[in-house]
């Protein structure tokens, strides 16, 4: 594992020696659709390579001050697992932009732009947005960030297919891929309990998930995340958070995105992290797995 991590950190340090990675990525992605010959149907499991990944039971052995570091991390996991929540918290901690393709899609939907009607149909059916649309939206977001002087990224929702992973791998070094996992019964309940304040746009969850341990499997408790009083009367449900659509999203994820996990597992940069519960239980353990500390979180807990 140490050789893998050494390669990861060496790759990170080498990024500043040439044109910025973000700028290169913008150029590459803008050309990817016309120049890439990657076959999105490639089954990498047939390659027969050994599957090695980093266990979250073994923290990363390097402790470094994250401030100022241009980390390039990817978050994987089923829809609704909490990628956005934990990527956002890490973004604040590391000082690196969190780029969520789901947010890019929702922003485009709200903009009434040329893609809005097409996206509305795709999202309502629980289907994956095409590579062409995602790459177009991501390119625009990276270009805007480059103009503002952003460097590094936490990608959430990209790559979702082998083709996207190959495109990303062809232009930049991904330091670490964090694969968040949650048992399916908890995941379904969590998705169906999601609510959004129609006024401020913040996310809440009304589900109280209490799964008893049995057959050697540990129990799990995830407390609801209720809104403050001023948001309580303004909660709405996302149009795609129905049981039928959620199950379809999970089916498509298993079919299209599970191979992406294997793609990064073979490269030795995949960190498997099983969420033990809600944010209070999971956040400290995720930080431990990443060998990071959240001093503000500790001060809040001690207050």
TrEMBL record:
Catalysis: reaction(s): AMP + ATP = 2 ADP
Keywords: Kinase, Nucleotide-binding, Transferase
Gene3D superfamilies in UniProt: P-loop containing nucleotide triphosphate hydrolases
EC number: 2.7.4.3
Family: Belongs to the adenylate kinase family.
PANTHER family: NUCLEOTIDE KINASE
Quaternary organization: Monomer.
Protein name per its UniProtKB record: adenylate kinase
Organism from which the protein derives: Xanthoceras sorbifolium
């Amino acid at each position: 594992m140490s050789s893998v991590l050494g390669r990861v950190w060496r790759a990170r340090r080498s990024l500043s020696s040439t044109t910025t990675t973000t700028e290169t990525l913008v150029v590459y992605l803008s050309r990817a659709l016309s120049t890439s010959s990657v076959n999105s149907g490639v089954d990498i499991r047939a390659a027969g390579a050994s599957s090695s990944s980093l266990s979250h039971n073994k923290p990363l052995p390097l402790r470094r001050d994250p401030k100022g570091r241009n980390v390039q991390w990817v978050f994987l996991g089923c829809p609704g697992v909490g990628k956005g929540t934990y990527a956002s918290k890490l973004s604040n901690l590391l000082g690196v932009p969190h780029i969520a393709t789901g947010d890019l899609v929702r922003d485009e939907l709200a903009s009434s732009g040329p893609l809005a009607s097409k996206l509305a149909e795709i999202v309502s059916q629980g289907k994956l947005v095409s590579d062409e649309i995602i790459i177009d939206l991501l390119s625009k977001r990276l270009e805007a960030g480059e103009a503002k002087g952003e460097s590094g990224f936490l990608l959430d929702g990209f790559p979702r297919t082998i083709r996207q992973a190959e495109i990303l791998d062809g232009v930049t070094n991904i330091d670490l891929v964090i694969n968040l996992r949650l048992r399916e019964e908890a995941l379904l309940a969590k998705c169906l309990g999601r609510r959004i304040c129609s006024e401020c746009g913040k996310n809440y969850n009304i589900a109280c998930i209490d799964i008893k341990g049995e057959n050697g499997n540990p129990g799990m408790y995830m407390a609801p995340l209720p809104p403050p009083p001023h948001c309580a009367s303004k909660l709405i449900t996302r149009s795609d958070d129905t049981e039928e659509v959620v199950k379809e999203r999970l089916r498509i994820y298993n079919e299209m995105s599970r191979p992406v996990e294997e793609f990064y597992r073979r490269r030795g940069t995949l960190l498997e992290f099983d969420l033990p519960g809600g944010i209070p239980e999971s956040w400290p353990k995720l930080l431990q797995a990443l060998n990071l500390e959240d001093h503000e979180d500790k001060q809040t807990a001690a207050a």
